[in-house]
Write a structure and sequence with these properties.
Length: about 375
């Protein structure tokens, strides 16, 4: 790193990026170094949500947006056998290469020389070693048998959910990935099922927090389960699709919300079998039981009232319960209703779950989440 930029980074720590502070630092080190130093601290603050050691790392805006969070990158790396060289074909600022280097030998390709240098810095800052080649992966000699790829889905038009619109383009990347022993390809979970099925891979819908964050296509000569689907969490928990039991027309004492990754992968039947649950109507995501469940795949809520989706009836129930709706959970056709449309303003904080049975909409007032 240029000495001026290194000094600017140190000097900007703890300061607000006000015009006066930027001007003072510019007078000492130059405007380019001063603005870069303040930008790095802004990006480091944002990066703390993704990286435990963000304050040691360097970023650019787009690279940070595209980078895998640490726990997701560790899941990616865990899919490869230990001790084998793994190539990161789309390094960016180095998030996945860091996880791969933490598990064993790794090499990375990044065609943007400035971003490749950021990745090298981030590896050094975390005490890890891996070669970063400032080279387009499609132009490289693939002297490896294992690879991870996260093609960019951003362009001037915004983010694309189409897995075939990416950089590098999948029509060039996929044939080479299939020739490897094992490859993991990160895609959007919003990609359509038929698009993902055409890849001929095992598809893993990966969740982190309470979101379905990614679809991973696992392919290659040693990939198991081509054409299958599963849900996974960053901690390594997995679910496979199973048939669902008959749905309940009314909720029991507890309404349970399934993790979005389990919903996306069609794994509600596995949760029903494991915990003795039933789907709730046609909600595709709400389950019901008489007791709360302890699972990272489920959130449990106490049912305090349920009835037809009629605003007057729901408001009357809120008045009887001395409650008010703080948020609406909507799993039914049509646009979600704002909680402001319900006028009851009691002290008890409740959630409104909106779901359907056939053409009939239902309202359920719930409280929680519960801690079983």
């Amino acid at each position: 790193m240029d000495l001026r930029f290194e000094l600017a980074l140190r000097a900007a720590e703890g300061l607000e990026a006000t015009p006066a502070n930027i001007r003072r630092l510019s007078e000492r080190l130059g405007e380019d170094a001063a603005r870069w130093g303040f930008l790095q601290w802004e990006l480091r603050r944002r990066a703390r949500a993704k990286f435990g050691h963000a304050d040691r790392m360097l970023f650019d805006r787009e690279g940070l947006e595209m980078a895998s969070a640490e726990e997701l990158a560790r899941r990616h790396a865990s899919l490869f056998p230990s001790g084998e060289l793994v190539a990161d074909l789309t390094v960016g600022i180095g998030a996945d290469l860091i996880a791969l280097a933490g598990r064993g030998p790794a090499v990375g390709f990044e065609k943007d020389p400035e971003r490749a240098e950021l990745a090298r810095h981030n590896l050094r800052a975390l005490g890890l070693e891996a070669r970063v080649l400032a080279q387009d992966c499609l132009m490289a000699d693939w002297g490896f048998s294992f690879a991870f790829a996260d093609p960019a889905r951003r362009s001037a038009a915004g983010r694309s959910a189409d897995p075939l619109r990416s950089d590098p383009p999948l029509d060039a990347l996929l044939p080479r990935l299939r020739e490897l022993r094992l490859a993991v390809l990160k895609l959007s979970p919003m990609a359509r099922d038929e698009q993902l099925a055409r890849l001929g891979a095992c598809i893993e819908f990966l969740g982190c927090g309470w979101e379905c964050r990614e679809a991973l296509a696992i392919l290659g000569a040693e990939a198991a389960g081509a054409g299958t689907v599963r849900a996974a969490l960053a901690d390594g928990s997995t679910l496979l699709p199973e048939p669902c039991p008959d749905a309940a027309a009314e909720p029991g004492s507890v309404l349970l919300e399934a993790h979005p990754a389990a919903i996306r992968a069609g794994c509600l039947g596995a949760l029903c079998r494991s915990f003795g649950l039933r789907p709730l109507g046609d909600s595709n995501g709400y389950l019901t039981a008489e007791a709360a469940c302890r699972s990272p795949w489920l959130r449990s809520y106490a049912v305090v009232w349920s009835g037809p989706a009629d605003r007057k009836h729901t408001q009357a129930a809120l008045r009887r319960l001395a409650g008010r709706v703080t948020d609406v959970k909507h799993r039914a056709p049509g646009p979600p209703r704002s909680p402001r449309s319900l006028r009851a303003e009691g002290e008890r904080r409740l959630l409104l779950a909106v779901w359907s049975v056939g053409r009939s909409l239902r309202h359920t007032l719930i409280e929680g989440p519960l801690q079983p």
